[in-house]
Amino acid sequence: MEHVRITDPEIAELVVQEIERQRDKIRLIPSENYVSSAVLEVSGSVLTNKYSEGYSKKRYYEGQQFIDQIETLAVNRAKALFGAEAANVQPYSGSPANLAVYFAFAKPGDTIMGLALDHGGHLTHGWGVSITGAYYNPVRYELRPDTHLIDYDMVRDQAKKHRPKIIMAGATAYPRIIDWNIFAEVANEIDAILCVDMAHIAGLVAGGVHPSPIPVADVVTTTTHKSLRGPRGGMILMKKKHRKAINKAVFPGLQGGPHNHTTAGIAVALKEAATEEFIVYAHNIVANAKHLADKLNEKGFKLVSGGTDNHLVLIDVSPKNITGKVYAKALDTAGIVCNYNTVPFDPRPPFDPSGIRIGTPAMTSRGMGKSEMEKLADWMDQVAGNVANEAELNRIAAEVKELCKSFPAPGIPA
Ligand SMILES: *Cc1c(COP(=O)(O)O)cnc(C)c1O
């Protein structure tokens, strides 16, 4: 922070404090991670100074000798890593990537279908407060009350009844493998576009621990900053036949100039994700989540769907006689960061729901493994029994900080 310290000591100090927070706490928000120093370097580079509206070789500004090569590398690496026919790496984030898909294939007022937010879907899958729910006509499918798995019968019934133009598959809080084939069958039956939003699990797909949607989906959207471990950004992977429509929807449809520093960061992250090391990382994310889930089960926590197949665990904390919000705040004081979350069929309101959501991508990036997951489950149990006991929470926070010292975080000086 040597330059910021001189120009803006206030911001410098806050950034330093955030670095320390990320260093000293166990970060369990399943959509967060630690990018590598290489990704950080290009993300903070002079590429941010350049305008390059358009696409490689078809730009509206001169001086693209290097930007064109960077974007082409990112596109080619995305195609190679996921086996996609075409890729757009310009969406500013996951939400604009989804909006581009709607803009490409639907008109305002058209029907779209997605998983309900309170069943694990994302805001941009047609929830009312989102532009996707306000400008389109959203219909929803849900989870089964008995298994907490996606109700695939409801997917088919709703699709046949409402004939949406676009079917969104994918989730933001769903701990199980999703069967893309059923969605593809249904989309085929009603001639809809199937868009898979793999924002949370892109790293798992890249590492081969979740089935890939690429072979069966028309388009696949993703963020680049979650389990994929790149800079904050978005991508759209697609069949060749959709490339023109999607590229037009992203620019000039929705966005202006691409964030070239992010594009370079995505290119670097995609190169990292194509290594043997990343495959091991993806396997470890899931192994850690499963082990943590087992231990939490043993301690009497109630897990949505009983456990996990992926990177995240949804916990109903009502059997512990606490609410999700109270528990999440106590965990944060104890140095364990997660978010409160609704559970399926939650009787409580969204701003004070019954559950929390945790995930293992960030801690796995620090090299934590099974024995650390066991310690973590112990701490989580202790916090649940001491949500108002400041001294106990502070004691745990000190232990957490001590453990974190043995697991240096990528991109953060020890
Ligand atoms: C995180 C997420 C998004 C949105 O990504 P932002 O980068 O926050 O806009 C979209 N869809 C799903 C399923 C997500 O989990």
Walk me through what this model shows:
The protein folds into two domains: 40-273, Aspartate Aminotransferase, domain 2 (3-Layer(aba) Sandwich); 286-405, Aspartate Aminotransferase, domain 1 (Alpha-Beta Complex), CATH 3.90.1150.10. Helix content is 44%, strand content 13%. It has 16 helices and 15 strands. The protein has helices spanning 2-7, 9-24, 37-43, 67-82, 94-105, 131-134, 152-162, 180-190, 202-206, 243-254, 260-273, 276-298, 324-333, 361-365, 370-384, 390-405; strands at residues 26-27, 54-55, 58-59, 86-88, 111-115, 137-141, 166-169, 193-197, 219-223, 234-238, 302-303, 312-316, 336-337, 339-341, 355-359. Strands 4-10-9-8-7-5-6 form a seven-stranded mixed sheet, sandwiched between helices. Helix 9 links the parallel strand 8 and strand 9. The radius of gyration is 21 Å and the shape is globular. The protein starts with a helix and ends in a 9-residue tail after the last helix. Pyridoxal-5'-phosphate binds next to helix 5.
Which fold name fills CATH's third level, the topology of the largest domain? Aspartate Aminotransferase, domain 2
The biggest beta sheet, please? Answer: 7 strands, mixed
What is the spatial order of strands in the main beta sheet?
4-10-9-8-7-5-6
Mean pLDDT: 97
Shape annotation: globular
- Multimerization state: single chain
Figure out the total of helices: 16
- Corresponding CATH architecture of the largest domain: 3-Layer(aba) Sandwich
The CATH fourth-level homologous superfamily of the largest domain: Type I PLP-dependent aspartate aminotransferase-like (Major domain)
